[in-house]
Amino acid sequence: MATCPECDATLDLEPEDVDVEDRLSCDDCGASLKVISTAPLEVEIDDEDEEDDDLDDDDDGEDEDEDVDDDEESELEEEE
Ligand SMILES: [Zn+2]
To answer: How far does residue 59's CA lie from ligand 1's centre (Å)?
Structure first.
């Protein structure tokens, strides 16, 4: 069982549920934490990036507007 390095709160994490370099935040103090070891389970303060709630893997917006199949809308042909 790991504890928050910031506030010493017990983190309810299972080693099977996390990987090294996984990021999480402390429920107690909200500190950004990073898993540095899973055996034993250890975390450290992660202050590299300050993203709070957007921890999605792909925030690059790679093919967001490339092949969107908006068939319903494209049925309306634009003719003059
Ligand atoms: Zn904490």
So the answer is: 26
- Top pLDDT among 9 and 75 is at 9
pLDDT at 61: 60
Kindly give the distance from the C-alpha atom of residue 38 to the centroid of ligand 1, in angstroms, as a whole number.
18
Q: What's the gap in Å between 32 CA and the centre of ligand 1?
A: 9
Give Dmax over CA atoms of the chain in angstroms. 69
Q: Identify the sign of the CA torsion 44, 47, 52, 55.
A: negative
Pairing of strands 2-3, 10-11: antiparallel
**Number of residues in the chain:** 80
Residue 68: which pLDDT band, with cuts at 50, 70 and 90? low
Which backbone phi and psi does 68 adopt, to 5 degrees?
-90, 125
Instruction: Tell which residue, 6, 24, 54, 79, has the closest CA to residue 14.
Output: 24
pLDDT at 51 over 60: no
